[in-house]
Amino acid sequence: MIKLIIMKKNTNYSEHFRMEVLEEICRMFFNGVLDKDVNHLPFNIIPRGSDNHFRCCVYKERAILKLRTLAAFGYSVNEIDEALPLTDFLLPEIEKKYKTNKKLLTVLESACSACVKSRFMVSEICQGCLSRKCESSCPFGAITISNHKAHIDQDKCKNCGKCLESCPYNAILKIVVPCEDVCPVNAIKKDDKGRANIDHSLCISCGKCISICPFGAIMERRQILDVLRLLKSKKLAALVAPSITGQFGVPIENIATALKDIGFEYVYEVALGADVTAQKEADEFKEKVIDEKQEFMTTSCCHAYVRLIKKHIPKLKQFMSETLTPMHYTAETAKQEHPDCLTVFIGPCLSKRKEAQEDDLVNYVLTFQELKAMISAKEIDLSSCAKTALSKTPTKYARRFAVRGGVAEAVKSYSSAEPGSIKTELITDLDKKNVLLLSAYANGHCQANLIEVMACKGGCIGGCNTVAPVKQANEDVVKFS
């Protein structure tokens, strides 16, 4: 079936094509034609005569759609034979050959625009003023004034930004490479052709580069095909993250019904595991901070933060909670109640897939984007779904784990410490500035004694694989809880 895409104003087209690929994969699979018709997928999205492309020609756009499909299938597109048709990548021998590494991200080189080098430049606003603050502030002698205008010697400039801060006219601009600029650990650099290159040894799987790239050139290697194939042959337990109540505009009971219609045998609210995490972290806080007089303790439920500590700030590890995450404890419950099931965590971010690689109790990870694609392909109307009652109800604090301050409040709710003895600090959004702050805290000096750390802005509701605006998601999660 050819689906004509109608482009709308105010649409994020990089996100649009990413979702169209996921929906088309699901649609083909549910119709039983994926193995036979997958080569037509790019043409279904951009049919003959369509103007639905933004690059030089429709043929390049389709070629990029093929790569997006391969990433959705779970391949690293930088390590495959691109000449093979899509149908070949569904064969077991090809999957065995090209799906061996555990890298989560892949760069679509043909989609990358090879952005200009990150640098500072002088705009036409410059007045060549007498104060010469830009010139005097530069510690590297990179700025000179000639013909009544400042000039920056790019060979001498170290991108420190002091000139930008000092200019009274705001005449100096910072030109950024979005993916480089947003990465909190400098894991992305431009290669010799100007395209993005990811150093996986530094990457903490926060997913910020996925969200920021204006061309959608950085993609995650998904597991949606694996889960689709297992729906008919295995008993799958869906573990839905607390942030899900802010994504689809309906109660979790409606979503549970949709998951059953898709083919999941069991549905668990991961907020149940959040209650376990909060209780254990409260006990751990009392033992370490109250009893043993440790300076402070940080939360540990955000796996991107955990990877940051392990890779970049190992001195902070002694202050990080050793409690496992809500995902782990919920998977543990599912396995205990249904030993033959396979667990599928459904959440908002990339880092949970990396965590699952290290946790034998979690078999697969899907995102809210992939769930939305499944729901759309199945033509399920969430608002009219009957409500499937879940067996247990978590606390309101556990259901707020996904929003800023939610984890800290849950820990406080379970704590036996004296009222007022817990002084919290919230670090929500792991950017370069907050990484420096945490590095400073590694020396053991902090005014707070319980620090909640979340990689994404607003908390888990701001993850790179969410489908709802952060503000609305925050309101919905709090209202539901």
List keywords for this structure.
15 strands; 3 domains; Alpha-Beta Plaits; 481 residues; 20 helices; 4-stranded parallel beta sheet; alpha/beta; 38% helix; Fe-only Hydrogenase (Larger Subunit), Chain L, domain 3; globular; 3-stranded parallel beta sheet; 12% strand
What does this structure look like?
By secondary structure, this protein is of the alpha/beta class. The strands form six sheets. It has a four-stranded parallel β-sheet, sandwiched between helices. A three-stranded parallel β-sheet has the order 11-15-14. Strands 1-8 form a two-stranded antiparallel sheet. Helix 1 crosses helix 4 (58-73) and helix 12 packs across helix 14 (326-337). It starts with 12 loop residues before the first helix and ends with a helix. Strand 3 and strand 4 (149-152) form a beta hairpin. Mean pLDDT is 93; it is low at 1-7. It has three domains: 13-101, no CATH class; 119-175, Alpha-Beta Plaits, CATH 3.30.70.20; 226-480, Fe-only Hydrogenase (Larger Subunit), Chain L, domain 3. The chain has helices spanning 13-30, 34-37, 41-45, 58-73, 92-98, 133-137, 162-166, 178-182, 208-212, 224-230, 252-262, 271-291, 303-312, 326-337, 351-357, 368-377, 396-399, 406-414, 432-441, 470-480, and strands at 105-107, 119-122, 143-146, 149-152, 172-175, 188-190, 196-198, 218-220, 236-240, 266-269, 297-298, 342-347, 364-367, 424-428, 450-454.
